[in-house]
Amino acid sequence: MTDTPTLHDQHGRYPRAETADDFRHNLAVVQARIAAACQRAGRDPAGVRLLPVSKTIDEARIRQAYAAGCRFLGENKVQEAHHKWEAMQDLADLHWSVIGHLQTNKAKLVARFASEFQALDSLRLAETLDRRLQLEGRQLDVFVQVNTSGEDSKYGLPPADVPGFIAGLPRFPCLRVRGLMTLALFSDDAARVRACFVRLRELRDRLRQQAPDGIGLDELSMGMSGDFEIAIEEGATVVRVGQAIFGARAVPDSHYWPVGTR
Fold first, then answer.
1. What digits encode the pLDDT tens for the residues 21-77?
2. For 252, which DSSP code?
3. Cα–chain-centroid distance for residue 101?
4. 49-53 contact pairs (CB < 8 A, 24+)
5. What's the predicted TM-score (pTM) here?
6. Where residue 42 sits, what CATH number does that domain have?
7. 48 is a domain residue
8. Total domain count, the chain
9. How far apart are CA 48 and CA 255, in angstroms?
């Protein structure tokens, strides 16, 4: 499986979806890619959840994606996600996953509307989220973000810090820990990208043997439009796919990718 390429930053590769039929077509293409990757890995496609990522996408096009069957959407920026949630509350079964870095002062927004948060990387944030969730009378599915690439530009815990972090999470009863999340290297070197995914899977497998009661580590959220097939081959259970569903954004992937110093 080492010959699966990455498809990073092929700007314009994906046509812009405008209608529900466009979205149905793009979703079918992505699901076929998921199924093919699962076949190579000897996995059941039912074990991989597709999370469409709607960052920068306007309400009208999100409603077309909804008409095509999307019921769970990922957003990087909590304020953008909260605004969309407020605007589309008539779609009662549309759920939101916040997948980008969160400052503690924005935790109250996530606690108010999100069904899932995939970028938990500090106990201070966990405590703030838990307190806010208690006030809202809600619980929240969370993933612990791990920096598997070692890049200073990326958020997430170093792998060595994850065991101690996981051990501290049972004291936050409103957080339902589901698994781990990572961003791989943004690279055309498929072997280096794959190594990030392998690192997360192996870490999860070690941690699962000693996870505290109530801490679930079944899920691995890894892989995006350019590399999700490699992620699936290495065990991803959630893939976060934006451009392959919604179409190319106004600027290339590299504009959104974390670079430089945080």
1. 999 999 999 999 999 999 999 999 999 999 999 999 999 999 999 999 999 999 999
2. -
3. 11
4. 49/237, 49/238, 49/239, 50/239, 50/241, 51/97, 51/99, 51/221, 51/238, 51/239, 51/240, 51/241, 52/27, 52/241, 52/242, 52/245, 52/246, 53/99, 53/224, 53/240, 53/241, 53/242, 53/245, 53/246
5. 0.92
6. 3.20.20.10
7. yes
8. 1
9. 28
